[in-house]
Design goal:
330 residues; alpha/beta; seven-stranded mixed β-sheet; five-stranded mixed β-sheet; 12 strands; 36% helix; binds zinc ion
Amino acid sequence: MSITVGDVVDLGRGLYAWLPPKRGWGLANCGLLVSSRGALWIDTPYDPFLAGQFLAESQKRLPDGVDIDRVIVTHANGDHFWGAGVLPGAEIIATREAREHIHYDPTPQQQHALVAGSDPSTPLGAYLGRHFGAFDWSTTEEVRPSTYFSGELELTLGEYTVQLSSLPPAHTGGDLIVHLPAQRAVFSGDVIFSSTPQQPGDHPVHWAGPLSNVIEACERVLATGAEVIVPGHGPVLDPAGVREHMGYLAYVRERAHALHAAGVPAVEAARRVIGEARYPALGLPERLVVTIGSEYRHLDGSGLPGVLEVMADVAAVAHETDASCAGGPA
Ligand SMILES: [Zn+2]
């Protein structure tokens, strides 16, 4: 797989969204806000190559003498902040709770070694190679936010206001949403993964939950009154698109609770929900293993497993699904 460069969408009043050209693990949307007095990013691409491309696109839109000196990180998954190294010296802003998730995930170089060294004859190795092999973190230093906050934080950029709100655990522990009132826009991070008939997206993957918190986060996005919602992944939405996405979340939550009550183990519950194929246009259905696993942990009161343990289950279910589609092992 090779990665081509994404599109920049002009959302008006100095706000731009950079959308990767296709769906898939790690291909996240990013934002650029420009004023005559400064510029900032909302999230970064996953690796230095993609971040360099987004930087080149951003620089075309900066007035003379203006640099990008702040990065808002919607949450601490690498696909939203590991590209920050292309802006040395920038202030990197995240929630206090995001710090814990940084320690849960591997560092960029650990992840690079893991993907490069994985055995393609195993389902996990094949899965990591297929979905993460095109990224390059061989020289990516760990990114450490420089500003942590809890609750709300309001920033000013020239004539614009940027409102950050931290959320209870949802996609991860430590998510935030970015509201830009003048632009009537919200960058939601990964509490929303979008899909439209023209641009089908992927199944969401939620590491923390419970899903009721993810649904409440969507309510919070709608409560801003924003007309333009840039999700963490997938096409830009309007409020009706967010409501539709909340229907997806409610469905997965309802199925997880029913299967849990019936005594079905979590991975098997994910297999059954995948088998129901209620959202056949969405890619990466195996990510339901993560989301349903997170919901089960809340129902059971159990702790967070290691990320590799979770990904091994994801890869095994993907392998079964591919095998059943192709009529043989993929
Ligand atoms: Zn993401």
